[in-house]
User: Fold these one by one.
Assistant:
Number 1:
Amino acid sequence: METLFNSPDQFKSRFATVGGYKTHYIEAGEGNPHKLLLVHGGAIEVGMGCYRWYANIIALAKKFHVLAIDELVTWFLGKE
């Protein structure tokens, strides 16, 4: 099974700054016409963010343009 951890050439790790806050996201399946946004849950754990979807992103990218946003970690780093 292809995952983020064994198929690094199948996705892109990117950053975006919105409203002065910088956050990370993963993008895969860019050529596909239908977009799919994956948002992590509000679990007590901190640190997995968009990587909670590690087993799903590559499979979903075969049919969708997948964007998986990471946790906004700038709350303790401050604005960019």
Note: Residues 13 and 30 are 13 Å apart (CA to CA).
Number 2:
Amino acid sequence: MTVSRKEVLRHPLFLLAFGFGSGLTPKAPGTAGTMLAIPFHLIFINFPVWLHGTIIVLAFFLGIWICGKTSEYFGVHDHEGIVWDEFVGYWITMFLVPFNWLWIILGFIVFRTLDILKPWPIKLIDTKVRGGLGIMLDDFIAGIMGATFLHALRILYG
């Protein structure tokens, strides 16, 4: 089924799944979605850690439902325009990383690289797990791997 720009922008569920319209970008919608996740991250880092973490957890579980329903409606598993998973994956990557534009950019590069190249086990999850959980889980794992990398760098290089 073809995705209608008008339909995405009018339906709240689709609007979230398509990252407030960023997933409608004709080229590299995942990158556009991740870029739009950055301003939200800049807001979340000002919250207490417990609230920041809770938002990410809720966004993940909400994303399973949002992405699953949207994917089901459009009849395509993980339509490239569905970028809510990129939002959450980037937020996971950046969780507890100190505020600094270098870290924000590095986190963006690390997360997008993992999401695009899909090293093991990300690729396995992407191909084997279906529905909303499958859409969210590969980016969740990419986010965990990205966060691990960034925190290791922070420990090694202070």
Note: Residues 5-157 form one domain.
